[in-house]
């Protein structure tokens, strides 16, 4: 028994040391190179905190740019995907319902023009970004409701578009919360 106990104890202590201390410190070190150093960035509007820049929020009113759907109802305490496969009938019905709803609210858009991120949830369910294409496809609806020129909204989307990290990593994206705050500011100017 002693021949098995001590090697097991050593291995346990080594794993505790590696996975409880060394690994988290390495991850923390890498986070220092990320935007905002891996910390939550709160966004303020008119002196009040209105959300976090790196956690998705629900925007589904017609006068705002819609956010990506969430499989966890935007609950940051329990992030996760739906775990339903692309052939699951419930999943397909849910996506079709989202497509139908989007088309009702955006009558100038065809089904083929809808970017997938506007009708499918992200893996975490908390993605705060959409693609510039997903934002631009909503411009007609917002311009009509807010009585704003389309070219002004297109310029707003372009100004809020974030480029890939170092020009290499990731894709262009638009933070929906920041875009909607900028939209409010533009609407107040009119």
Automatic annotation (TrEMBL):
- What does the entry list under GO cellular component? plasma membrane
Query: Known Pfam families for this protein?
Result: KdpC
Q: Where in the cell is it found?
A: Cell membrane
Lipid bilayer topology: Single-pass membrane protein
What keywords sit in the KW lines?
ATP-binding, Cell membrane, Ion transport, Membrane, Nucleotide-binding, Potassium, Potassium transport, Transmembrane, Transmembrane helix, Transport
Question: Membrane spanning segments where?
Answer: none
Q: Which InterPro entries match?
A: KdpC
Q: What is its main location?
A: membrane
Q: A Gene Ontology MF term for this entry?
A: ATP binding
Similarity-based family: Belongs to the KdpC family.
Q: Function of this protein?
A: Part of the high-affinity ATP-driven potassium transport (or Kdp) system, which catalyzes the hydrolysis of ATP coupled with the electrogenic transport of potassium into the cytoplasm. This subunit acts as a catalytic chaperone that increases the ATP-binding affinity of the ATP-hydrolyzing subunit KdpB by the formation of a transient KdpB/KdpC/ATP ternary complex.
Q: How does it assemble?
A: The system is composed of three essential subunits: KdpA, KdpB and KdpC.
Name-wise, this protein is Potassium-transporting ATPase KdpC subunit
- Report the source organism: Arcicella rosea
């Amino acid at each position: 028994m002693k021949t098995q106990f001590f090697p097991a104890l050593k291995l346990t202590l080594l794993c505790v040391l590696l996975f409880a201390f060394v690994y988290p410190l390495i991850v923390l070190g890498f986070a220092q190179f990320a935007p905002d150093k891996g910390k939550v960035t709160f966004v303020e509007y008119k002196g009040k905190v209105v959300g976090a820049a790196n956690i998705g929020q629900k925007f589904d009113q017609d006068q705002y740019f819609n956010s990506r759907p969430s499989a966890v109802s935007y609950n940051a305490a329990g992030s996760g995907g739906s775990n339903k496969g692309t052939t699951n009938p419930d999943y397909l019905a849910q996506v079709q319902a989202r497509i139908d709803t989007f088309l009702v609210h955006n009558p100038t858009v065809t089904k083929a023009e809808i970017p997938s991120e506007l009708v499918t949830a992200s893996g975490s369910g908390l993605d705060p970004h959409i693609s510039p294409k997903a934002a631009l496809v909503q411009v007609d609806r917002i311009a009509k409701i807010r009585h704003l020129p389309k070219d002004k909204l297109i310029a707003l989307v372009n100004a809020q578009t974030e480029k890939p990290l170092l020009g290499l990593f990731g894709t262009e994206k638009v933070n929906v919360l920041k875009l909607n705050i900028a939209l409010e500011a533009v609407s107040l100017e009119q």
